[in-house]
Amino acid sequence: MPASSLPLHPPHCVVGVIGGGQLGRMIALAARRMGIRTVIWTGGLEAPAVEVADEVIDLPFSDPIALEDFCSRVTVSTIEFENIPRETLEAVARRTGLHPSPSAISICQNREREKKFLRQHQIPHTWFAVIDNAADLAAAMKELDGPGVLKTADFGYDGKGQIKLEGHEDADEIWAAFESPRAVLEAWVPFEKELSVMIARGADGSIVTYDPAENRHRHRILDVSIVPARVSPAVALEAGAIARRVAEALDYRGILGVEFFLKTDGTLLVNEMAPRPHNSGHHTLDACVTSQFAQQLRAVIGLPLGSTRLLSPVVMLNLLGDFWPDETTPPDWLPLFQDGETSLHLYGKRHARGRRKMGHANFLGKTTESALTRAEALKRRWLEQAIPKL
Ligand code: AMP
Question: Which residue has the least CA distance to atom 5 on ligand 1?
Fold first, then answer.
């Protein structure tokens, strides 16, 4: 048996995490509880994971010295952020083992590869066409013959990424203004709800799924996740089954977020996949037997997966920078603490900006409705006290 497939045990392993954002922070916090050491490779010392990691490498992801240093310090690696150069992922995988694999990450980090993967595996998804130039766009708009959304093929394109099209626009003008070398045009889906499923696949191929979350967005950023999603048992089962097909087809190891559109006729379409812990899985920190972060560590190290059982209905509220009265003054948390069934998770970011994810709060309740009412009330209150910045 090669050394890399032997199960590792805390405290005899050091997990390397590529990326230093809040997801890395929460992986590092879970690791500390489990007696596992972490090395965070980040692009800046103000990154949220830095203050909780055991060791930090603060150099670009393309730096060969950083690569050598990272690989020499860790037993096994994972990512918390998918926009890492493919060569870096491949090199880390060869040296330390990387879960999920570079090929799974590469599929999920690019919309074109992601959509083609879904099509190849006959996993339900939205109609799409790959766009290289204005003529492609004109042809695709003609074929679609209705509303759509043009998205950059690569993620992380400075938020410039998406534009809704009604279908009658001038393709030359749209393409000239879009400023991306490659894109996909997707059909607009008049969905009833957006759902996501967190799924984990272990070293031995065993799979566990969490209850689907019902996700609402604000300014295109996740606002609240309601768990369990208010959908029929058949829809919940189907979402889990599709997520399982995605994880198996990717030969995935680790935690994976699969996002869906639920159409009014009850059918589900995969929107996108996140090859890491996901914002819509943050409720698992307080409301599930095993959090998505602890699960990730189990899968990456090669330990048996933990139970995903939901202990209580829960609503996760994202705390964006627009809740902050000013850049350095946090909202009044007292009402949150007065609500004895809510927990606050802050990411240690010193400066609030409108859309920055500063933290989240998990509202537990006897029902999702009661949790949602309390979450919405606090959200209104904080937004009223803040200076609008969005
Ligand atoms: P994405 O970055 O692809 O997840 O898109 C962000 C959000 O935009 C989604 O969560 C949806 O609310 C909305 N959206 C994206 N694509 C579509 C689509 N094809 N049809 C309808 N809404 C969409």
Answer: 220
